[in-house]
Fold this protein.
Amino acid sequence: MKIVAPAGNMERFHAAVKGGAHEIYMGLKGFGARRNAENFSLTEYIEALNYAHERGVRIFLTLNTVMRDVEIEALYENVKKLYENGLDAIIVQDLGLFSFLRSNFPGIDLHGSTQMTVANHVEANYLKEIGFSRVVLARELSFEEIEKIRKKTDIELEIFVSGALCISYSGNCYLSSFIGGRSGNRGLCAQPCRKIYKDGKEQVAYNLSPKDQMMGQNEVEALARIGIESIKIEGRMKSPEYVYETVNYYKTLIGGEFAEAKSKELFNRGYSKGYFYGVDKKIMNDRYSSDFGRYLGEIKNGYLVLAEDVVLGDGLSYISKDYYKLGGEYLSKIVVDGLREKRKSARAGEKIKLSKEKVPKGSKYVYRSYSKEAMDSADNSIKLAKRQMDIEGRFEAAVGTQGRITVWAINNRGERVEAVALTEKPLEEASKRVLSVEEIQNKLGETGDTTFRFKSIEVETDGKTFLPVSILKSLRREALAALTEKLLASYLRKVSGTVKKMELDFLDKGKVEISAVAANEKQREVIRTLGIDKVYLRQMHVAREARLGEVNTTEELATTLYHALARGKKERGTVLNWNLNITNTYALREASKIEGVDTVVLSPEINYDTMRNMGEVQGLRKAAVIYGKLLGMYIEVPLAGKGKAETIQNEQGDTFVIRGNEMGNTEVTLDKPMNLIPRMDDLEDAGLDEVILEFTDESPEEIRAVIESLKDKSGVYNPYNYERGAY
């Protein structure tokens, strides 16, 4: 089972390689789901590719955001350079980008990002059928569901095991963009899940903030047992020390040894096992959302009763009873209660004196925000660690012939790469003692600071050849240098021809059809009595492996890929809903290939101009939502009771509704609906076939008011993203 590690910059990249990662995912500056991470320039990226390939490590480019047509096409030159320099795979969310990459870069592995929310075997098999080689499954699946999917698909599966959890399903979140235009699906999430909220009872908490995930030995062994190919670590914006320790932790577990996760000392907002054992509210941490570190104890009468050992140089954070950070300091002296002498450390259970001047008023708890021992240990390990690639060799020597060493490695594509080195002159007979086979193997095996280590060396001699150690060293050095050159050359590709782009068609449209989405049959009945005949019924937003039987595939509106595939050619008129994130013409074309699909509801994260500039696909209708309390987050954890709704408010005054649905899941919306009805004129030339009113909790009277406002295009204009688009 391979470890897939993050790298947000070159320092973290080296830490991941040295820690033992088999595969590393990295972004280019300006692209990917961590656009605000430091990321890599093109020159740095190529340097990293060569460094990794010399050591047998694979590199994945993260392009896991949704894009516009022009953005997809603008990627070509950068991706071309990486492709030609041996990029191993690209991680994508956008089906349009997938289509473009597959057409222009043959042979590159394409991985379905976790943001695709693949939660069942049907979706996994479809992605394999159209050309994906791997899928990162939704993070909310239990082990039992992962096991069922594994039995029903042979596409490579990657499972998230460690790092920050998005509380919205696998990062597919819209709150950040609906509030301020910073889209998680576009790589610029403002992390509303990590903000503090006030509820209707004036209680303040981090209502939407989960702990980080950290699977252990039992979970890793279970995943290995069922044949999962790769496990993924999150942390492109975490420290190099965190990356190194986390990778090294999982490397140890995969090797069958027990290990403690030292990375918990380097970043800690609380840890859980995620959804591995099913849904559990204990994954949430409503007290704080940032890196508090390890809990050290409570302050009493100027003393801290230690829950953990401490050493000089540890960083302390002072926390109020309401879990606000009030300040901090580095531990510069340790005075244990009852002892006069100063100490360099103190053990759990001991009481240490705190400085009155440095402890802020109102402090109640103490957390370790910086572990000197853990940081020093990680720094030292990174400095000493080296990563080498396993190679094999054969040495041949006989009197009167040139000495010959052949070395070979298997590159990341499974190809054998071979290099040969020969002595300048034929070898002579030894006048004294001849080196033994074992001595020759040992001398040739001293690869030192090179990027290689011999897994095996076969030696064949006539037993009488003169072999000075200097000749063996020279042969080895020459062979390994040649192997390095040939290994890197084995990754090089050439792109033939010019970029393959779509030719955009723009068709004249007739009158735009008005339809609606109802939350239930009662609403559907009300809407129809008010003159709208086409009324879809809201559907579940995730099709989990364990609950596929609950998906109502008789309904046209498909909010999951599974729903559309299950309807297939048996049912015409399938409508792909907006949460499938269609933002470009390439994605429209890919959607049109799904049997039975005839309408696509465009993403509400595009603006009017993008909509106008999106081309047509023959036989496919385009639609857009013009009214509705659009779903900002879909959450597996039940944060509100079934059928119940609660409101929370952020510090900026935005109000959100948290609603428990019939599935026992949680839906989060803004309390104020999006409403484009007053600006319907802007939509008339946008190339749409259909506009949709989406209803959730509206009463019959409210539904009537919305529908009647269509006549004179009245109401409160609230465009969410349509005016500006999501960044």
User: Anything to note?
Assistant: The chain has a mean pLDDT of 94. The CA atoms of residues 236 and 400 lie 57 Å apart. Residues 469-489 form the longest helix (21 residues). The first strand starts at residue 2 and ends at 7.
